[in-house]
């Protein structure tokens, strides 16, 4: 995964290896090039070695301007903070908006249930405090319960949701208590769980707590006539017995004290059925509510952060693919997606010297901002800016600041257009369940532009043969195909949304497109009104045969195709995109996934190159002056699944002894003098002790497993590969 | 009025000034006719009082005529023996008792009621009883009093409290409801013996002990040496009695009668508990009324037939669901769903399982594979792993088919049977990981098609999937899909067991298009 690269010196700020973080502070406090040179990292050898080289160049450029270095680092740090706070607030807003719908539903449910309970009986204060049940005509006492399906097996995302829900309900005049799975465990029992419920409601919980304490608290004037909501956010992890008992206990009192449950379910509605006894289930009056699925939330987030230029930071194709895969395959939580994005953002600002220009994207007068900043740049950095490969391919060679400003504004403009087109695509695609993240990943692919010619022909091909439409690789194609088969009402709606998306565009071409959309809309409406009845009939027949789509659908599809070809320019095809776009997927991956065991093994194997000591320079053979564990690890590489302990020990002893004898020959004055006689029992014991310690260390780091009883002379290797 | 403790005179005086809304429940029009009936009865002349009280009681307790008169007889002039009311759940024990206590002569001086279900510990029980018996003026202070820890202290404190009350000469009733709950408490046996022997321990003739339980007297009195109490048995309701109970307080009795004539009998075959029936019938009645515009209308024969046809499919569904939770969709979904009801009804009772072929919640792909491998590890015998997951990934099944003798076939059969009887088996982590690696390596090709070939995840192959398996494992354990046996975490010797059924496993497999059925061992 990573191999030591050349002796290129790096600044501490550019140092991205997680295990060298500790050195950072020291290096920045002593900003001498000497100190920096000592920190040699193993730069990941990546397919995109270009990027690493660029970083090194940048670092070199900066080295020459010692004084400016700190200033620019400071600038980048500020830019990062500004950008991320913007992104974070956008994320919060989006998630809040999604959740608010659910919260209002819950609140409405609470109000309805409360009025239902109150309709049964409206007990007086004295009646509430009596210990025996009210005599009402209600046959079954059931606790209104909202099951909230969080639709994600992973629970992390919903912690904040339930916290916000609690806040929302509390601010709308409910008493609130939260019970977690730890409180609803068999260890605490129903008593402990009820006590913690009381503790959240009452200021002073008496020594012996029954429901009557709650009743007398509820009768106090300021508490009366409000429902009590108990939120249990992770139902699956609760103990069914304890929860069942709690339900039975509270259900006896539900008319006197209106306690309602809100329970979060991560999996399916079967969960409460499996968990609770039928008696307890009978006492719940359930109501199902669903949270937006993770992919819905993801779509909303992608739209707000990545498609609409909210913070002037974007990600390249490979990074997008990585994030997508990480989300769908590994983790599936929004939380980790956001943290990965944050990591990408921070890496971008720490690696790219010009990244502080990103902030300009948000400024009112961005050109002015960029001019100010760029004029102040030293010559080296300017040269560096024009050395971007994107500039080279666009044949921008002159060194003037106008060029870069022009380039950046064009970039900004095209990004906006790109975003609008992408949203148009998504609007059409959502009727065929195409995920925005998929379209996004495809739309940032730099090969898209070059493929466009091919792509058009492929579309026609596919529409004829009608195969392979569901393939994830071609979601844009799929979207365009979807348009051809959209029913008329939906198409009208889509066209309306399109014109909204395209409205904001200042560019002449875009307004032209907008006109076309309008035209299409008007024809659709007129056509629609004229032959509505006929339409339906033909559409049905068209759908059944598969060929011969409606001409209007066809027109819309052609328009979309046209717009896509013209305006869906991936950011990586534009000059100066390196300033705002993060592309280094390897850095992100190693920072995210880590793989500690492998790193430990690698470090043990290559300890010479990390330590840089004088004694064990000679590369190939295992030298005895290495650390014991390192020797053992090197030796273990020669074995297969299992290592014969005896052989291992013998080779280890041999290596130690050979060094010792060498040391004796060179007459070093060292404590190893004692060990110079390999045959002496004392020396042997020492070697055995060292051997044992090394094996134990390897066991603790998870590289080997201790011998089993069946085969006491063999240890098992766990970590393989260099 | 639900105030049996208040002396009768106060009740009468409040009822006597008829316009005066003495209690809030009376002032509200919502309170049912029955609830007003009881104080109204007390308005009658003293001579007829007795009979009308019984009538009122019987009116309030349909189908409980014998039990009610027994209750009045056994409770009335301070009886010598404790009383035990027993019978199944939701047979009206508590209700009958509370109503009877309101009607007996002479009026009880004080009733202390302890529902053992709503008291989490013995100390809470002691505290609750003592605070109910102590004078009402100091009730707020008494909650701050020291609560006795030991049963013996409790008995002493109880006797003190009772003695002062009994000195005034009227009966005090101690009611223990849900007595069966105590048996499952920590040291419940001792407490139960104490409660049952209270009569012997207190030796106060004015104190009447009443126990209410869903377990029979044999469950309690076989082991203790205490006096056997009088007992009253509450049998399950018959179908007509249930109808009477359900009919009470309905705004349109004709409509409801026609509904019950259709729906009650089939459901009654499933459950006899009134509360369960009530809960099951309520949504059905709403469905039943759907085609009607006017809920006040009296249905004629043709309407009844139409309504019957409307309700029949839903009834069939409800019959299978009586013990499960009826779920209601949210308001929006209800509105959306109404249009689709007609289309989906047919599908609904045709094949309900096929309704949800899709996985309803999100899981990452690696978690899905891990779940599938756990399912396989639990279902298949470990000896078969080598055959199923060989180097070719189990794709050549024909290799394994070999002629086997009758004896070995028989042995296999018994083994399969045994496996089915045992349920899902347990497996160590290593086996899970091995299967996981096998099935992910097989389906790697399938995954490659889906994603772009230039994506970097392919570079590291499935090692990417393997990286955080332990995290996924804990996720699965948290969501109850896997259960983990407790053992030393460092040794890694914990064994797991998958709790999912085949339906869910198949759903998961379908969502990642993994040929699960190929790997399940069955004959």
Describe this protein with a few key phrases.
heterodimer; A: 722 residues; alpha/beta; Rossmann fold; Arc Repressor Mutant, subunit A; 5-stranded parallel sheet; 32 helices; flat; B: 523 residues; 3 domains; 8 strands; 7% strand; disordered N terminus
Ends distance of chain A: 9 Å
* Shape descriptor of chain A: flat
- Report the major sheet of chain B: 5 strands, parallel
Within CATH, the superfamily of the largest domain in chain B carries the name: P-loop containing nucleotide triphosphate hydrolases
> Given the C-alpha coordinates, what overall shape of chain B results?
extended
**Could you report the average pLDDT of chain B, rounded to the nearest whole number?**
73
Spatial separation of the terminal alpha carbons of chain B: 67 Å
Calculate the mean pLDDT score of chain A and round it.
75
Largest sheet of chain A at a glance? Answer: 5 strands, parallel
The CATH topology name of one domain in chain A reads Rossmann fold
What is the total domain count of chain B?
A: 3
CATH class designation of the largest domain in chain B: Alpha Beta
GO molecular function (chain B): ATP binding; DNA replication origin binding
InterPro entries (chain B): AAA_16, ORC5, ORC5_C, ORC5_lid, P-loop_NTPase
Keywords (chain B): ATP-binding, DNA replication, Nucleotide-binding, Nucleus
Subcellular location (chain B): Nucleus
Outline the fold blueprint.
The complex is a heterodimer of chains A (722) and B (523).
Chain A: H1 21-29, H2 33-38, H3 49-64, H4 66-120, H5 125-129, E1 143-149, H6 156-171, E2 175-179, H7 189-201, H8 211-218, E3 228-232, H9 240-251, E4 259-265, H10 270-275, H11 278-282, E5 284-290, H12 294-307, E6 314-315, H13 317-331, H14 334-351, H15 366-375, H16 379-386, H17 389-394, H18 401-429, H19 436-443, H20 447-465, H21 475-484, H22 488-503, H23 508-530, H24 532-545, H25 551-567, H26 577-580, E7 581-582, H27 585-593, H28 596-605, H29 607-611, H30 628-636, E8 642-644, H31 645-665, H32 681-700, E9 704-705, E10 714-717
Parallel strand pairs in A: 1-4, 1-5, 2-3, 3-4, 6-7
Antiparallel strand pairs in A: 8-10, 9-10
Helix pairs in contact in A: 4-6, 4-12, 4-14, 7-9, 13-14, 13-19, 14-27, 15-18, 18-19, 18-21, 18-22, 18-25, 21-25, 22-23, 23-25, 30-32, 31-32
Chain B: H1 8-16, H2 24-27, H3 33-41, H4 46-60, H5 65-75, E1 83-87, H6 93-103, E2 110-115, H7 122-133, H8 139-142, H9 151-166, E3 172-177, H10 188-196, H11 198-202, E4 207-213, H12 218-221, E5 230-234, H13 239-247, H14 253-270, H15 274-289, H16 301-321, H17 331-350, H18 365-379, H19 385-388, H20 406-422, E6 426-428, H21 429-442, H22 444-450, H23 463-466, H24 469-478, E7 482-484, E8 495-498, H25 502-511
Parallel strand pairs in B: 1-4, 1-5, 2-3, 3-4
Antiparallel strand pairs in B: 6-8, 7-8
């Amino acid at each position: 995964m990573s191999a030591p690269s050349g002796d290129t010196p790096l600044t501490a700020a550019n140092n991205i290896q997680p295990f060298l973080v500790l050195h950072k502070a020291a290096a920045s406090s002593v900003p001498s090039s000497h100190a920096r040179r000592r920190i040699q990292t193993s730069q990941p050898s990546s397919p995109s070695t270009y990027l690493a080289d660029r970083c090194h160049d940048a670092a070199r450029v900066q080295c020459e301007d010692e004084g400016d270095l700190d200033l620019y680092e400071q600038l980048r740090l500020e830019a990062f903070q500004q950008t991320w706070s913007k992104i974070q607030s956008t994320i919060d807003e989006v998630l809040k908006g999604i959740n608010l719908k659910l919260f209002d539903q819950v609140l409405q449910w609470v109000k309805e249930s409360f009025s239902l309970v109150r309709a049964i009986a409206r007990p007086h204060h004295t009646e509430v405090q009596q210990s025996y049940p009210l005599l009402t005509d209600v046959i079954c006492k059931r606790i209104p319960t909202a099951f909230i399906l969080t639709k994600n097996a992973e629970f992390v995302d919903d912690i904040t949701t339930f916290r916000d829900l609690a806040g929302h309900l509390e601010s709308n005049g409910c008493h609130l208590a939260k019970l977690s799975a730890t409180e609803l465990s068999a260890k605490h029992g129903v008593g402990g769980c009820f006590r913690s419920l009381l503790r959240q409601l009452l200021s002073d919980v008496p020594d012996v707590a029954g429901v009557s304490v709650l009743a007398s608290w509820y009768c106090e004037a300021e508490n009366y006539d409000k429902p009590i909501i108990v939120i249990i956010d992770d139902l699956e992890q609760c103990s069914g017995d304890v929860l069942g008992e709690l339900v039975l206990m509270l259900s006896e009192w539900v008319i006197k004290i209106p306690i309602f449950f809100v329970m979060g379910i991560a999996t399916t509605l079967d969960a409460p059925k499996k968990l609770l006894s039928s008696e307890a289930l009978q006492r719940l009056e359930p109501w199902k509510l669903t949270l937006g699925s993770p992919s819905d939330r993801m779509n909303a987030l992608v739209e707000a952060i990545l498609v609409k230029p909210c913070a002037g930071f974007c990600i390249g194709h490979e990074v997008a693919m990585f994030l997508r895969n990480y989300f769908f395959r590994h983790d599936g939580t929004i939380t980790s997606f956001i943290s990965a994005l944050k990591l990408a953002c921070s890496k971008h600002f720490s690696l790219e010297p010009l990244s502080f220009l990103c902030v300009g994207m948000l400024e009112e007068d961005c050109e002015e901002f960029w001019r100010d900043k760029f004029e102040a740049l030293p010559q080296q950095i300017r040269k560096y800016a024009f050395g971007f490969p994107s500039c080279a391919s666009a044949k921008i060679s002159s060194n003037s600041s106008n060029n870069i400003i022009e380039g950046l504004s064009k970039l900004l403009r095209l990004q906006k257009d790109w975003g609008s087109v992408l949203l148009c695509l998504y609007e059409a695609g959502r009727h065929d369940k195409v995920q925005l993240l998929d379209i996004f990943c495809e739309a940032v692919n730099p090969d898209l532009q070059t493929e466009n010619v091919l792509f058009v022909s492929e579309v026609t091909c596919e529409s004829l043969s009608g195969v392979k439409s569901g393939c994830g690789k071609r979601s844009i194609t799929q979207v365009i195909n979807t348009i051809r088969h959209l029913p008329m009402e939906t198409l009208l709606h889509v066209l309306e949304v399109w014109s909204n998306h395209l409205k904001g565009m200042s560019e002449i071409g875009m307004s032209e497109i907008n006109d076309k959309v309008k035209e299409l809309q008007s024809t659709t409406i007129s056509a629609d009104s004229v032959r509505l009845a006929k339409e339906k009939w033909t559409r049905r027949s068209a759908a059944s045969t598969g060929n011969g789509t409606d001409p209007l659908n066809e027109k819309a599809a052609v328009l979309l195709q046209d717009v896509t070809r013209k305006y869906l320019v991936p950011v990586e095809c534009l000059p100066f995109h390196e300033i705002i776009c993060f592309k280094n997927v390897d850095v992100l991956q190693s920072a995210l996934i880590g793989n500690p065991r492998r790193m430990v093994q690698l470090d043990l194997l290559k300890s010479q190159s990390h330590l840089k000591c004088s004694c064990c320079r000679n590369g190939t053979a295992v030298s005895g002056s290495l650390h014991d564990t390192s020797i053992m690890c090197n030796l273990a590489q020669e074995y297969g699944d299992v290592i014969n302990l005896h052989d291992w020990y013998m080779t280890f002893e041999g290596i130690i002894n050979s060094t010792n004898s060498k040391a004796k020959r060179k007459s070093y004055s060292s404590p190893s003098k004692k060990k110079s006689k390999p045959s002496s029992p004392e020396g042997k014991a020492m070697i055995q002790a060292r051997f044992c310690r090394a094996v134990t260390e390897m066991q603790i780091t998870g590289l080997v497993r201790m011998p089993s009883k069946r085969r006491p002379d063999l240890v098992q290797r766990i970590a393989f590969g260099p | 009025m639900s105030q049996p403790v208040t002396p009768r005179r106060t009740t009468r005086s409040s009822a006597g000034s008829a316009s005066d809304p003495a209690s809030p429940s009376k002032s509200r029009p919502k309170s049912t006719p029955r609830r007003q009936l009881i104080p109204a009865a007390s308005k009658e002349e003293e001579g007829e009082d007795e009979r009308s009280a019984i009538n009122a009681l019987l009116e309030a307790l349909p189908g409980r005529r014998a039990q009610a008169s027994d209750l009045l007889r056994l409770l009335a002039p301070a009886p010598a023996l404790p009383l035990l009311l027993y019978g199944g759940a939701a047979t009206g024990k508590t209700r009958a008792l509370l109503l009877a206590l309101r009607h007996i002569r002479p009026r009880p001086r004080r009733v202390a009621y302890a529902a053992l279900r709503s008291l989490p510990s013995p100390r809470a029980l002691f505290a609750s009883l003592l605070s109910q018996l102590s004078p009402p003026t100091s009730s707020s202070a008494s909650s701050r009093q020291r609560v006795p820890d030991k049963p013996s202290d409790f008995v002493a404190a109880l006797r003190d409290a009772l003695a002062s009350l009994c000195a005034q000469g009227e009966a005090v009733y101690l009611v223990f409801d849900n007595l069966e709950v105590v048996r499952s408490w920590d040291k419940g046996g001792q407490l139960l013996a104490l409660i049952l022997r209270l009569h012997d321990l207190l030796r106060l003739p004015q104190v009447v002990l009443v126990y209410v339980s869903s377990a029979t007297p044999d469950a309690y009195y076989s082991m203790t040496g205490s006096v056997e109490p009088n007992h009253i048995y509450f049998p399950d309701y018959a179908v007509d009695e249930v109808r009477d109970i359900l009919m009470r307080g309905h705004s349109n009795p004709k409509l409801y009668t026609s509904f019950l004539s259709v729906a009650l009998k089939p459901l009654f075959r499933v459950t006899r508990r009134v509360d369960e029936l009530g809960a099951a019938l309520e949504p059905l009645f709403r469905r039943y009324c759907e085609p009607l515009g006017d809920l006040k209308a009296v249905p004629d024969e043709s309407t009844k037939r139409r309504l019957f046809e409307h309700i029949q499919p839903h009834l069939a569904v409800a019959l299978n669901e009586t013990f499960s939770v009826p779920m209601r969709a949210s308001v929006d979904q209800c509105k959306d769903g109404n249009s689709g009801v007609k289309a989906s009804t047919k599908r609904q009772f045709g094949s309900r399982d096929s309704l949800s072929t899709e996985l309803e919640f999100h899981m990452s792909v690696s978690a899905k594979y891990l779940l599938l491998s756990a399912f396989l590890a639990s279902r298949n015998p470990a000896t078969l792993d080598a055959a199923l997951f060989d180097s070719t990934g189990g794709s050549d099944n024909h290799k394994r088919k070999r002629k086997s003798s009758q004896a070995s076939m028989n042995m296999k059969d018994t083994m399969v049977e045994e496996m089915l009887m045992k349920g899902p088996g347990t497996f160590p982590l290593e086996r899970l990981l091995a299967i996981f690696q096998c099935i992910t390596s097989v389906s790697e090709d399938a995954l490659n098609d889906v994603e772009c070939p230039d994506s970097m995840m392919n570079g590291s192959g499935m090692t990417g999937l393997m990286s955080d398996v332990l995290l996924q494992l804990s996720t699965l354990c948290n969501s109850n899909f896997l259960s983990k046996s407790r053992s030393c975490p460092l040794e890694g010797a914990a064994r797991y067991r998958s709790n999912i059924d085949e339906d869910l496993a198949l759903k998961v497999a379908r969502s990642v298009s993994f040929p699960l059925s190929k790997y399940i061992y069955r004959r």
